[in-house]
Amino acid sequence: MSQLSTSPHLAVALSGVVEIPACFIYPLLNRFGRRRCFITFLFTTAMAMFLVFIKKNATLWLVLGLVGKLSVSAAFNMFSYVSEFMPTQHRGLALGVQQTASRIGGAVSPFVVDLVSDVHELAPSAVFGAVVLLASLAALLLPETAGRPMPETVADVEAAAHRKRFKKGAVYERTLSDDSTITDVTSN
């Protein structure tokens, strides 16, 4: 953030302030859905990171940096979204992998800034913007979990993915992990 402002003290102070509204995103999640909010937050972050290339203006860079920080903080605060589409027996592991990956990303990011800043002063914005854009595109593959029960088993996850592929009211037969078969009618 301090690379995007002429005053590093102001940038850091404002960066902390924008964390506060990011903590109050939960009413949005229930109204608009977790998947849509998550993708919107990530995409907004990516666009803010790319828009700094439009004009060399310290104030514009600071504002876009704060918009990006707010959006990525809101997306990060949605860590419970991962647990909502994972089965109970794997939920803790999924959250642990997610937290580990985020900590590794936080540890590596200063090195990325040091390595690419020599290329161009805005190169870190391009690198981080590209990573967040890829994350927002990957999030398109995630299921919506708002208003749906959390899966208890891997079979529940597979059944939900299977129902998504069929039209409402379609009758289909599926084989479970114990080689038994069941007939099901889709309801969504």
From TrEMBL:
SUPFAM superfamilies: MFS general substrate transporter. The keyword Transmembrane applies. The chain crosses the membrane at residues 12-29, 36-54, 60-81. It is found in: Membrane. It comes from the Eukaryota. Keywords: Membrane, Transmembrane, Transmembrane helix. GO terms for molecular function: transmembrane transporter activity. Residues 1-147 form the Major facilitator superfamily (MFS) profile domain. One of its GO terms (cellular component) is membrane. Its main location: membrane. It is a multi-pass membrane protein. PROSITE patterns: MFS. This is Solute carrier family 22 member 15. The lineage of its organism: Eukaryota, Metazoa, Ecdysozoa, Arthropoda, Crustacea. The gene is slc22a15.
